[in-house]
Amino acid sequence: MFKRDNxxxxxxxxxxxxxxxxxxxxxxxxxxxxxxxxxxxxxxxGYLMMxxxxxxxxxxxxxxxxxxFQACTTFVxxxxxxxxxxxxCGTGGDGLxxxxxxxxxxxxxxxxxxxARVAKHGRSAISSQSGSTEVQRELGIPQWDSAEGVLQSLxxxxxxxxxxxxxxxxxxxxIAARHQTGMRSILNLLxxxxxxxKPAYQLLGVYDIALxxxxxxxxxxxxxxxxxxxxxxxxxxxxxxxxxxxVRELRNGNIHSYQVASNDLFGEIGRYENLxxxxxxxxxxxxxxxxxGKTRGDAQNIVTVNAGAALYLASRAGSLRDGVELAVATIDxxxxxxKLDELRAGTRGGDEH
Length: 353
Hints:
single chain; alpha/beta; seven-stranded mixed beta sheet; disordered C terminus
């Protein structure tokens, strides 16, 4: 399965990580090339993921692996396609993030309804019951397997969704061994950082507070104009209404650190059980109920605070609080429900999946 030279190279890298040595960007890129080519054994992948996580991933390591991953994409975007676009996504993973409904997907639709131009990059579920792809399918939103279809959706609706694995097969040789480890790793960050449209703005949720600074620095290096990297103290990879959320905001080339607390925005702290989801059909019902203004309380609050952050980053609102108010008004006016209906009526292009 692996070539001898790559086997020896990975042994060397594992030895460095065992001594908590950081890898140069080119070395991280080379090891990722070997992984994506399937030139490793399962034990090596486990050691590499664990070694990087325990040591703490550096921006150079993440950029090296990301460069190898992006080299595998088949999605060719026109120059400047990402101008004024925002991506709203999270790393996902096990723990609390695996059990809640699809917050970022619901927030994406709400932000688009409120006037943001949204390009979400996602995939099917790995550790949770329902990924963005599955819940959108249950909602009846067409999905596109060609760049032309994705761009047409963006032009028509001001929103598009890119199912990453249709356009990038890099993970095909890694996914089985990755599942066996049952551990979140640097690989969880690749999808959220590799939107082929290269959006100017991004709201990125990560599963570990230790990743906030690294992820924010990488977004800066990638050229994002504005971004927020968020992680709640309870491990939720969203702006939470249950626990304080740590934020790194990229603005004017600088990274600012602060926290967001639910009681400051909504006058109360939410309860985790009010955010629980289920299978794709259940999560689609929750999303639709929120967008149609039938579900209030914590579930609506967590969607409006994440949509509000997207609206703030996309300059549709002057502050996070203003963004939340705009998101609530968009639900109350029926615009959110109308956007969902509009998306459902879209014409499907390419092959159906």
